[in-house]
Amino acid sequence: MKGNEHKPRIGIFGRRNYGKSSLINYLTGQSVAIVSDIPGATTDPVRKTMELHGVGPVVWIDTAGIDDIGDLGTLRIEKTYAELRQVDLAIILVSNNLFEEQEQRLVDTCRDTKAPFLLLYAQSDINPPDNYFLSEVAERTGVKPFVMNVSDMAFRQPLLDLVLSSLPESAYRHASLLGDIISRGDRVVMVTPIDSAAPEGRMILPQVQVLRDILDNDAIAMVSKETELQASLSSLAKPPRLVVTDSQAFDYVSRIVPDTIPLTSFSIVLARAKGLFDEYLKGTPKIGSLCDGDRVLLLESCTHNVTCEDIGRVKLPRLLTKVTGKSLSFDVVSGLSALEKPLSDYALVIQCGGCVVTPKQLASRLAPAIAAGIPVSNYGLTLAYLNGIFHRAIQPFISQGA
User: Fold this and answer.
1) Average of pLDDT values for 302-307?
2) Cα separation of 290 and 347, whole Å?
3) Is 158 in the same domain as 15?
4) Which residues, in sequence order, are CB contacts of 27 under 8 Å at separation 6+?
5) 61-118 pLDDT tens trace
């Protein structure tokens, strides 16, 4: 099962009228993006999912030109670079035998974010490349440009093969969430509260992902509401190998589950899988050092209807204030929107589970805070800390070397 967060993102970048939209149509075999001779036809990023042999579904992203003009053009360029910082592979178009400041900035951004990139000399039928230019670009960037044009289908498969070989495996091959903790035949109890914040008629994505991982490891899953947990545990002939709960029920569940049974949360399981677990482990205990007047940033990856039981906007701020006893200020930013305040205003950043974003997107989101030395945590780890069970909640993973 692949949610959106498991789809590698491949972005196409370059100047206006270099054929970025034509390229995404060429690669997907569909009229996905508007193609026009008028510069700036692509304003917002255009996305198209396509099955790529050997990888599975990938998301192609067409972006606005890096040489756009005017106030709106500046905003479009900012959006383009925001996309560049989150892709798993960048395709940078060059043409007209030009490699100047704009192209170099794209390359430098890829290197800064550790994103692999391809250089594609586009429109070679209209503006043939100079061999000296190609050699100079290859020497300057370390990447040999792939010369092609979209009027010739002979280039399509070689280009797709190049994309496949350049896409890092970490973008599409993911380790099991619990495979190093559970084994065939183990019983895992999933505690899934149903409150006003629960989606209508379905389970939330982290719960579905953990359930699928349990099944993939040939273990046995038992799903229970927190109010039925005691009865569920009593019905088992022997204790379960692990209990995974919604983080919001930590206090209630931890009092029911004996200390001899490992306990963690869906959010913590995802936090470990997304690759920033060590940063969360370092940052979470800093909650105990918060002072009066400190500001806390809460990052939500998804967009959802806010209720009175919302974890990021209601429960976490209320619990942080209560447990720390400090007068704190809170800001919540949804999706991948830009921050309204400088990062230096914050004493702590708390990220949600990130179930709907890729590991690269999440890492890109938190990288500035980590670089600035601002502690970062995760919803689940924060709730574990505030409920006094931080060490218990991370123990299943620490004992496995995290």
Assistant:
1) 53
2) 7
3) yes
4) 50, 60, 156, 159, 160
5) 999 999 988 888 888 899 999 899 889 999 999 999 999 999 999 999 999 988 999 9
How far is the C-alpha of 247 from the C-alpha of 312, rounded, in Å? 12
How many domains does the chain fold into?
Answer: 3
DSSP-H helix ranges across 42-114:
70-84, 101-112
β-pair partners for 12: 62, 91
Q: Give the rounded distance of the alpha carbon of 12 from its chain centre.
A: 19
State the pLDDT at residue 362.
85
Residue length of the chain = 402
pLDDT for position 385:
96
Map tokens 């496995």 to a residue. Answer: 400
Q: Give the angle 379-113-161 at the CA atoms, nearest 5°.
A: 110
Dihedral of CA atoms 351, 283, 393, 356 in degrees, nearest 10, equals 20
pLDDT band at 195 (very low <50, low <70, confident <90, very high): low
Q: Could you tell me if 14 and 134 lie in one domain?
A: yes
Q: At residue 206, what is the residue type?
A: P
Task: Point out which residues pair with 329 in neighbouring strands.
Answer: 295
Give me the domain span that covers residue 296: 277-386
CB 10 within 8 A of CB 89: yes
Grouping H, G, I as helix, E, B as strand and the rest as coil, residue 324 is helix
Q: For the CA atoms of 269, 272, 275, 276, what is the dihedral angle to 10 degrees?
A: 120
Residue 204's CATH number: 3.40.50.11420
Rounded CA separation 149/125 (Å):
6
Residue with tokens 């560049």: 84
Domain boundary among 171, 206, 230: 171
Q: What is the dihedral of CA 165, 171, 176, 180, to 10 degrees?
A: 80
- Mean pLDDT is lowest, of 29-33, 144-148, 236-240, for 29-33
Closest CA to 129 of 162, 166, 99, 102: 99
Domain membership flag for residue 393 = no
- Count of other CB atoms within 10 angstroms of residue 353: 28
pLDDT digits (tens, 9 = 90+) for 324-345: 999 999 999 887 677 888 999 9
